[in-house]
Design brief:
Elements (H helix, E strand, L loop, with lengths): L1 H14 L9 H20 L3 H25 L5 H29 L3 H28 L5 E3 L3 H13 L5 H14 L5 E3 L3 H16 L3 H24 L11
Antiparallel strand pairs: 1-2
Helix pairs in contact: 2-3, 2-4, 3-4, 3-6, 3-8, 4-5, 4-6, 4-7, 5-7, 6-7, 6-9, 8-9
């Protein structure tokens, strides 16, 4: 009887999801981020602007998971989940956004569309490489090497929503960002207060992209470009304060 009871408990525990008791609240936000990455890819087949807005929502979820990890603590699996989710949201989704933008303008020109697909593939590949190196070498540091994938995705989304959606601009930016992600240029993590400001601007660009002459997407684009260009040399930071992964 005791043996049977033990077997019954073992079978019952085997029916539970493997992640039960192993994921924290921050990991839930990370998983939501991954799902939004797929939604952004699906949205790109409907409208590049819609895909850009979903991509910004994923960026907000990405920032939220870091804040939750600082508040409630992280888990051992957290950094791996974060990088895997970012492959979907800030690797595949921005690449799909660039390719769909090119297809909408260059339909009927297989050479140009093929070049856009090659750029998108390179972007995904470099995002995977960058995130793998990040997980191995940069987790726990107050900085990372290479342009963060979240920044790259935000830049492309803001570019489209700000009205600078000519295919040469979008595909060209995608190619440059693919290279920038695998440089050794150090980027400091955003302080909490600045991440909150960036998140607020992202939310406004997401909710009202056309308001006031596209003011919010253009403000977001300006902030993101400022960090891209000035962050390595001029951004102030407090030692030990940064995102989870």
């Amino acid at each position: 009887m005791p043996s049977g009871s033990a077997d019954g408990r073992q079978r019952q525990s085997g029916l539970r999801p493997r992640f039960t008791g192993r994921l924290g609240v921050a990991d839930v936000a990370t998983v939501v981020n991954a799902g939004l990455g797929f939604c952004a890819v699906a949205a790109a087949t409907v409208s590049p602007a819609l895909a850009a807005r979903v991509l910004l929502l994923a960026a907000i979820a990405d920032a939220l998971d870091g804040m939750l990890a600082r508040r409630y603590g992280g888990t051992a699996v957290g950094p791996y989940l974060d990088s895997l989710a970012d492959v979907a949201s800030f690797g595949v989704a921005p690449a799909a956004l660039a390719v769909v933008t090119a297809q909408a303008a260059w339909d009927g020109d297989p050479l140009k569309v093929g070049a856009a697909v090659a750029v998108g593939a390179a972007f995904v590949a470099m995002a995977v490489v960058r995130l793998g190196l990040y997980t191995a070498n940069d987790v726990g540091n107050a900085h990372t090497e290479g342009v963060p994938t979240t920044l790259a995705g935000t830049l492309l989304a803001a570019t489209v929503l700000a009205g600078f959606d000519a295919p040469l601009v979008v595909v060209g930016c995608t190619a440059l960002l693919a290279l920038a992600m695998v440089t050794t240029i150090p980027y400091p993590d955003l302080l909490v207060r600045d991440a909150l400001v960036m998140g607020a601007v992202q939310a406004l660009a997401l909710l009202a992209p056309a308001a006031l002459g596209r003011l919010f997407p253009r403000a977001l684009l300006a902030f993101a470009l400022a960090y891209l260009l000035l962050g390595p040399g001029f951004y102030w930071r407090a030692t030990g304060e940064g995102k989870r992964s």
